[in-house]
Amino acid sequence: MKKFLALLLTMLVAMTISACGSGDDRAEKDSSAQKASSEVENNGSSENETSEKATVYPLTVKDATGLELTFEKAPERIVSTSPSETEILFALGLGDKIYGVSDFDDYPKEALTKPKVGGVTKPNEEAIIAADPDLVIGGISMKDDIVEKFRGLSLPLYKTEPKKIDDILNNIIQIGVITDTQQKAEELVAQMKEDIKTVTEAAATIKEEDKKKVYIEFSPGWTVGKGEFMDELITMAGGVNIASDLEGWNAINEEKIIQDNPDVILYTAGTVDDKSGKPLEELITSRNGWEKITAIQDSSLTGIEGNIMSRPGPRITDALTQMAEAIYPDLFKK
């Protein structure tokens, strides 16, 4: 179990075994993040309308934990401990201001050239301090005790904790405002919203009785229920997540999945089960009794790149499009 949790946290960046807390704590953090987005948009924009929006400093924002941070100027030395946020920074044209990334940052390819500062759950504080950052971004996988430890070291830590697609979009806007790249951030979010609109408008034409049941296995033996953005992606694509009666990330019940009889199975492409050594698709199709499942009988299994599907960043709408194409190939033509 410990080995799995470490793998899961690495893969999700949020993903998000590490984000699992009490319902009240989670709701409070979500509320703080969404409120912060509104405050940043209102307080961080230029007073005069210009073709290129400029952030007015000093700028005070709240992160997902509710902590206020004040920036006297746009950050010049940024350390990102989360692949999702690293992707956001590069998408905003801030590659030259990134002085450290997590050991698992691999996209875009320029991220591979940046100094490494350790894992996503417990980054190396010595490496981060040595980078002399004026902004450290912690992702959804960073543990609360590490957040407090870094703040005790006076590191300028901005923590994100996206649970919904709107949270992801808000994070992009917030980071854009903090780094004085809000014009690019708004353009990126606008394009992502167009991607979402394309999928959801098509999905809205599907009759309720025609909606397909979907099972997703993002890691061997694990699926996702409601309250997470991966479940939301299935719903946006017009599918019905058979695990929507559960909360968060859950070990699977093989008998229940047979009973639920999904029409479509989605899984993380390129994943190999540590115990059996089997590719995830083979593991799924070879389980006892699963040959009765409609998705397997109809060969309706699709692998999606894990980094696209699991990282709450700019490519999350690519995952939405790929899911929609896999669930309703006739409706969503590639």
Descriptive report:
It is globular and about 60 Å long. The strands form four sheets. Strands 4-3-5-6 form a four-stranded parallel β-sheet, sandwiched between helices. It has a four-stranded parallel β-sheet with strand order 9-7-11-12. The chain has a two-stranded antiparallel sheet with strand order 1-2. The chain is built from 13 helices and twelve strands. Helix content is 40%, strand content 13%. It folds into two domains: 2-192, Nitrogenase molybdenum iron protein domain (Rossmann fold); 205-327, Nitrogenase molybdenum iron protein domain (Rossmann fold). The model is unreliable at 1-50 (pLDDT under 50). It holds the Pfam family Peripla_BP_2. Residues 1-19 form the signal peptide.
The helix tally amounts to: 13
Mean pLDDT: 88
Strand order of the largest sheet: 4-3-5-6
**How much β-strand is present in the residues?**
5-15%
As a percent range, the share of helical residues equals 40-55%
CATH level 1 class label of the largest domain: Alpha Beta
Largest sheet: 4 strands, parallel
CATH architecture of the largest domain: 3-Layer(aba) Sandwich
Radius of gyration: 20 Å
Kindly summarize this structure in a few lines:
By secondary structure, this protein is of the alpha/beta class. It is built from 13 helices and 12 strands.
Topology record:
Layout: H1 2-12, H2 23-43, E1 59-62, E2 68-71, E3 78-80, H3 83-91, E4 98-100, H4 125-130, E5 135-138, H5 144-152, E6 157-159, H6 165-178, H7 182-203, E7 213-217, E8 222-224, H8 229-236, E9 240-241, E10 249-251, H9 254-260, E11 264-269, H10 280-285, H11 294-297, E12 301-305, H12 306-310, H13 316-327
Parallel strand pairs: 3-4, 3-5, 5-6, 7-9, 7-11, 11-12
Antiparallel strand pairs: 1-2, 8-10
Family: Belongs to the bacterial solute-binding protein 8 family.
Signal peptide: 1-19
Coiled coil: 182-209
